[in-house]
Design a protein that fits this description.
Elements (H helix, E strand, L loop, with lengths): L1 H19 L5 E7 L6 H16 L4 E6 L10 H6 L5 E4 L10 H6 L8 H10 L2 H10 L3 E8 L5 E3 L13 E3 L4 H8 L3 E3 L6 H7 L4 E3 L3 H6 L2 H4 L13 E7 H6 L2 H35 L9 H12 L9 H15 L3
Parallel strand pairs: 1-2, 1-3, 6-7, 6-8
Antiparallel strand pairs: 3-9, 4-9, 5-8
Length: about 325
């Protein structure tokens, strides 16, 4: 009861906001999985500004941080019910509804650059597959975004797939764990909070962690001085959505603006995170840290091994369609 009272209070707040918004025909709340001050939330506020400007104030968007209206695991249902009008979040949170959400959220080994994902979404059927899945929950896909490919933290030089043999590395349970086992590594399931001390004490040799700039800022590369960048193994995605009824109610001119600015947000976020990564790479090299870069041939070898694991996680019709579409996309590039 308290939860729904909270939601009702927030909805009344939005109603009051709607009454004061100048010339706004639509007032939306979009909840992100990020905290109030993080980069994604900051970039989304820029998205809201673009939409307001490009629609001459006809659409006003309030960006809500994680758990501010509903729990981060409940945004899909909340968007479908129009409690919030959209979300920007990790699809993997909804894997309990359909395993396809997990595959779309982070298909290990599939992408070594965001442009590959975006190309598959636009030209390989990806957008249509994901949009159809979301439509089942009364949700419309606007765009798929990401912060970039995660770098790899390592105390030992790993220059090829073969070099992973015998490497003790932190990898969470799931597909990433399976893939690294398949290439001969020894995965250890550790929470992210224990990665630094585990590297420091020699419990692990390497770790799946996050993007290079964050690794550098947290001092990971100071103790694990052979990071791999650009990354090749993991690129978590974010869905950018809108309530389907709200979408259907929009005139064509506003639909085009909302979708155009969603793509603009997607590209802007990649540009900004790439700048942060490249700055961090320069800082690391200045400290004598060796930044290892894999040749395309080794990235391709890793992907081929990862592809053998994808079917094991394709446990629904949509998940299988997605996995097949990604495999077909890469086959077309050979």
């Amino acid at each position: 009861m308290k939860r729904w009272q909270k939601i009702l209070t927030i909805m009344l707040m939005f109603t009051a906001f709607a009454g004061t918004a100048i010339a706004a025909e639509y007032n939306w709340a979009i909840q992100t999985s990020g905290a109030a001050g993080d980069d994604v939330t900051r970039f989304l506020n820029q998205y809201a500004k673009w939409v307001a400007e490009d629609t001459n104030g006809r659409i006003q968007i309030s960006i809500m941080p994680a758990d501010s209206v509903v729990k981060y695991t409940e945004t899909l249902d909340a968007v479908g019910a129009n409690i919030i009008q959209g979300d920007v979040t990790d699809p993997s949170y909804f894997a309990g509804k359909d395993p396809a959400f997990s595959l779309i959220g982070n298909m290990v080994g599939a992408w070594s650059d965001p442009s590959q994902l975006f190309d598959m979404m636009a030209n390989g059927g990806g957008f249509q597959i994901f949009d159809k899945l979301l439509n089942q929950y009364n949700v419309k896909l606007l765009a798929v975004a990401c912060t970039g490919v995660e770098a790899f933290v390592s105390k030992k030089p790993i220059r090829s797939v073969a070099d992973f043999k015998g490497i003790k590395l932190r990898a969470p349970q799931g597909m990433v764990n399976n893939v690294f086992t398949a290439i001969g590594a020894t995965p250890v399931n550790l929470p992210g909070s224990e990665v630094y001390t585990s590297l420091e004490k020699g419990v692990i040799d390497a770790s799946d962690y996050t993007v290079f700039a964050t690794n550098q800022a947290q001092g990971m590369n100071d103790i694990a001085r052979f990071p791999i960048y650009p990354g090749f193994h993991s690129m978590p995605t974010m869905q950018m959505t809108l309530n389907l009824d709200v979408w259907n109610s929009l005139p064509d001119d506003l639909r085009k603006i909302v979708q155009k600015d969603a793509i603009r947000f997607r590209d802007y976020m990649i540009e900004e995170h790439t700048k942060l990564d490249l700055k961090a790479v320069a800082e690391a090299k200045a400290k004598g840290i060796e930044v290892v870069s894999w040749p395309p041939s080794e990235v391709a070898k890793f992907r081929e091994i990862a592809k053998t694991q994808w079917p094991k996680w394709s446990n629904s019709p949509t998940a299988k369609v997605w996995a097949d579409a990604v495999a077909k996309y890469w086959d077309s590039k050979k």
